[in-house]
Amino acid sequence: KFSHLKSYFESTDSPEHFLQNTKYNAGDADVFLSTKMAAPLTLLFIVAITIRAVLFRSSLADLITERVEVVSPLNAWKRVVEGLALLDLGVSPYAGDVFHETPLMIYFFHFVIDYAEIVFMVSAVCIVFLLQFRKQKYALEGDRYPLDCLELIRTPREMLYIPLKVAMFYLLNPFTILSCVAKSTCGLNNAVIALFILSTIKGSALMSAIFLALATYQSIYPLTLFAPALLYLLQRLYIPVNWRRPSFWLFTTQYVFMYLGSLAVMVCLSFFLLNSWDFLTSVYGFILSVPDLTPNIGLFWYFFAEMFEHFRLFFICVFQINVFFYTIPLSIKLKEHPVFLIFMQIAIISIFKSYPTVGDIALYMAFLPAWNHLYRFLRNIFLVSVVLLACSALFPVLWHLWIYAGSANSNFYYAITLLFNVAQILLVSDYFYAYLRREHHLTHGLYLKRKDGSEATLVLK
Amino acid sequence: TAICQSITQLMMWYANNAKYFPPPSTAKDQFQEELVIKPLHSGDIYASFQFRTQWDTDFLLGSKVSHYRLFPKSLGQVISKFSVRELHISFTQGYWRTMQWGQPFLPSPPGAELWVWFQDTVTDVDLAWKELTNVLSGIFCASLNFIDSTNTVQPSASFKPLGVGNVTDQRFLRYAVLPREIVCTENLTPWKKLLPCGSKAGLAVLMKSEKLFHSSFHSQALHIRPVCKDWQCKSTSWELRQTLNVVFDLHTSGQGKREWSLFKMFSRTLTEACPLASSSKVYVDITDNPQLFELSPATPLVSQAVVLGDGRTYSVYDLTDHATFGQTHSLNVLLRWRAAEREMLRPLLHGERYVAGYGLQTGEIHTLVYNNHPYRAFPVLLLDTVPWYLRLYIHTLTVTSKGRDNKPSYIHYQPSKDRLQPHLLEMLIQLPPNSVTEVTVQFERALLKWTEYTPDPNHGFYVGSSVISALVPSVVAMDTNNTQERPLFSSFFPCKEESTYFMRIYTEPLLVNLPTPDFSMPYNVICLTCTVVAVGYGSLYNLLTRTFQVEEPSQGLAKRLANIIRRLRGVPLLT
């Protein structure tokens, strides 16, 4: 059983006509979207852009730009400007430890520095367009499920609203707004990842590899998205994931070469732009060895500020491996659901990366409306949402108490980052649980019975 | 073009330094000692000792020397081992208040300052510097061993060699300041031992630590540089200058009486010159006499000198002359004030610095440079060394004079590397006449590792003084004739032009607070963070390795026990 999609297309004489209708409806979705959804989407864009434009012009912008939750040493706009100023002074931006963007990024900003606000707003809006991908997929999957699961399968109508919901979730998410107003380059990295997802969904292996390489080049961690992209493209081409099939190896090799080739081109191009390899240590060394302990919402800063010098290297290795560690088991478990795998990977990256910001969280949160069919299986979504909201509110409060009022100390802020990360972990694992459970129900029926016929409860064993 | 001219002047001054040298002499080794006493307008007393040892040997030619006469052997060996061309070291306790006291003869920043020019034959300058600081640390009983790459810089223009030679490649220069260094008796004792007479005879008998350190300002310095041996400058010799500057606050120590004497200041009087000294003199600045104070015993010797752009008159007591000591065989110079203090002329160049902003996240360094000259503009070189943990943002640098943007004509900026090198910012700024120039730059405070904080982290971290070097227009014509014997205090910085003189001033060091982690937490933090990671790992592991199954009612305890017995008996199990 390698691909349900394939089994569907093979069994054309399927008795469930209803689901075939579903498919046709979904195929019309684009047309439908362009007519019926255009108005609310446009309205949403206008609202989103207005909010950003107003905030850019207000005095809040300076405040937001300084927030440690919104900008990290890796993506702060202030540091981009500093890098450009250093270039103007004739000093390599990598001579110091302030600038950590990639060389391509600095040349990009060299040209658009005057239009930075527009660039960030456009990239925010683009991401929304790029994330409009899930409209076809689920409708196609329907036929293989037991009849009593029909209520688990989304109707075409529900599917149609997903793009709008994703757009709302991303554009009106306060995290995204803050990140955009602070001109955190995290927004651009998100755009690259969104481009990668779009090109993968569209089945363009070359573009997918290029954008994946670009995302990796920007911040290493998206390397783990390689597995879901490969799985998705294989699935799309009906190539089973089978070690003995030459077609599998052929395509995998092709994709690896496209990926590594474009990565090599980018790295070499960076070298020729600045004529030095300094950027490797300054960008990737900085991400991996975590020398800057400026507080942020992640787990690294306080841990390594308080670490015994003797164990520093060991724990840095452990924490960095932790980000990449889940890729293989998740890929095995979710090999038939690469889109959900992408979501899981992005979420894990944004929780466990060395310099996370709220912009990273906003990216995986934009996926949540796409999984709205999982709501019935979520176990503690209320608790998690409340904790996330409370923590978001407490971040600035405790920061103020520690840094400005002096009436609290670093432990207060640290406690909140811990809680925030626990909540994120619970959220992601809850969605994972719900997804697996739905899959189980789809194959075994929604209302399970014991051997003796009584109603059964489902447990993990 | 006016700016350009003055810039070239300043640069030229540096380049031409080498040609000018202190008065030559014919003796093999030579030792001179000198004490200048200057009543300050604030009512304080400024006493400046200078000891100059000239050593006629030539390390620059690579000859090995094993015989030392007046020059201290410990320093001679240091020079030859590390191929030092110039060495300047100062230890200062307290801050020189330019606005109240005027200019010092030799400026120095609070704490310890060390700058060294190495010979261009040195291949690994960093290694030589590291070893040299450790050796000097031993010689002076100071914490110079704390000088490492995080507080060492190579200024491109502010510190040029003061002796002969034309090495100007900054690769051979190292400059470091330890603003937190406390100067005390243990630093003074080894410093005194370097004098040919020690503290046994001559002016050095006045140096009693309990008096010297009971003062508003105390600075001891040591300068080694190559100078011309004679007129034609065919060969060089080494000059060692040891200076000690003290400012006594007589308001506190004089019980309200406005008079002082050598005995009151130092608890000693002078009885003889150092027998090894070729000259031994006490100068008292009497430019303001007799309006301000009265001096006794009277001395017939009066000397005129141009010091720091101003003509001064000095009463001179020549200690080599027995008549100076009179009937009592001791000299106790006595000054008695007549009038109340007057307003002092404001110094032409003055600098201030402070940190603005609140909170522990960001801040802004403000440096104010005053040009009090009524109609002359002149350029200054501003040097800032900022430790890496205050991350400077150079794009926020602003320089304003008289409310207008004043773009520096030269900027040398070296950004910091975390835990490796500090920021170095050097600028050439043109100061308009009668103006205040404000230089601001923003910084961000870093959170350090808990082991990187000083033992008292909430006291704050010191940032060394800014250095302002300038060619200041002089009020009277400077004495550019180097043939004439001049008092030591007026001959340290060589002077080339009549219209300007070189001046270096230091601003206040800064004390900056950084955010601190909780130092009692390492175990807790490691445990808690690892717990969170484990929660993530555990929940994913749980979902990855287990599968969903319909829950079957568990067997009762009795049934399980029965099954164990049945298994032992080999009969079919109960289900």
From TrEMBL, chain A:
Pathway(s) per entry: Glycolipid biosynthesis; glycosylphosphatidylinositol-anchor biosynthesis
Membrane-spanning residues = 37-55, 107-131, 167-198, 210-234, 255-277, 283-304, 311-328, 340-368, 380-405, 411-433
What membrane topology was assigned to this protein in its record?
Multi-pass membrane protein
Cellular component GO terms, alphabetical: GPI-anchor transamidase complex
Q: Where is the signal peptide?
A: none
GO process annotations (BP): attachment of GPI anchor to protein; GPI anchor biosynthetic process
Q: Where in the cell is it found?
A: Endoplasmic reticulum membrane
Which InterPro entries does this UniProt record tie to the protein? PIG-U
Which keywords fit this entry according to its UniProt record? Answer: Endoplasmic reticulum, GPI-anchor biosynthesis, Membrane, Transmembrane, Transmembrane helix
Q: Which family does it belong to?
A: Belongs to the PIGU family.
Q: What is this protein called?
A: Phosphatidylinositol glycan anchor biosynthesis, class U
- Species name: Esox lucius
From TrEMBL, chain B:
Q: Which superkingdom, per the lineage?
A: Eukaryota
GO BP field:
attachment of GPI anchor to protein
Which InterPro entries would you find in this protein's record? Answer: PIG-T
This protein's GO cellular component annotations are: GPI-anchor transamidase complex
* Pfam families associated with the record: Gpi16
The name this protein carries in UniProt is Phosphatidylinositol glycan anchor biosynthesis, class T
According to its UniProt entry, this protein's organism is Esox lucius
What does the record give as the organism's lineage?
Eukaryota, Metazoa, Chordata, Craniata, Vertebrata
